[in-house]
Amino acid sequence: MPTELNQLHSSEEALARLMEGNRRYVAAQMEHPRRSREHRYELRNGQFPFAVVLGCADSRVSPTVIFDQGLGDLFIIRVAGNVTDTAVLASIEYAAVALKVQLIMVLGHSGCGAVQAAIADDELPGHLTDLVKAIHPAIESVKDADGDLLDNAVKANAQQVADQIRQNRPVLADLAATGQITVLPALYHLENGHVELLE
Q1: Domain of 48?
Q2: Mean pLDDT across the stretch 5-27?
Q3: What is the pLDDT of residues 75-92, one digit of tens each?
Q4: For the chain, what is the domain count?
Q5: Predicted confidence (pLDDT) at residue 119 exceeds the cutoff of 50
Q6: What is the spatial distance between Cα 163 and Cα 156, in angstroms, rounded to a whole number?
């Protein structure tokens, strides 16, 4: 049953399961688990994900695929630049409180277009201005650092968002402070499929 498989995972167990799935993906030895008609039917009355992944909306970065997981395994929130707003935070709160998910991963990726746009700082149409504005503090924090600015900014952005989640009051900050949730930033490398933990 989905309850037994997913809901009882500690954050450590959940992370190990994610990273093992990523190892299978990198090695092109995917199992494509829990995608059968029978499993889909089992999930009809509820969901029991074992991890939250806040990732970029980039079409090349599908958490279910890169972690080789199945239906109902991951509570996925995707938005360009993997940034937060009240809807994203509310979604994470729901997963943590109602679904009892203990691991929250903020997944940036190499070559992120949203971070590139924030670095370029060109005039953008519509709501894109608000999106890149959320990324600017991460860029500022690494603008004088050694290495590639884009790579450094992508990592800093994932770390910044993880910190925002950990510190968001009242719900998430309290859960983080009491060890009921673990929030980790990570980086997906487009060139080889590997997920690198940033903490």
Answers
A1: 2-197
A2: 88
A3: 999 999 999 999 999 999
A4: 1
A5: yes
A6: 10
Q: Strand 51-55: give its sheet, edge to edge.
A: 74-78, 51-55, 103-109, 182-188, 195-197
How many Å apart are CA 109 and CA 18, to the nearest integer?
16
Instruction: Give the model confidence (pLDDT) of 146-193 as tens digits.
Output: 999 999 999 999 999 999 999 999 999 999 999 999 999 999 999 999
List the CATH number of the domain containing 63: 3.40.1050.10
Pairing, β 51-55 against β 182-188: unpaired
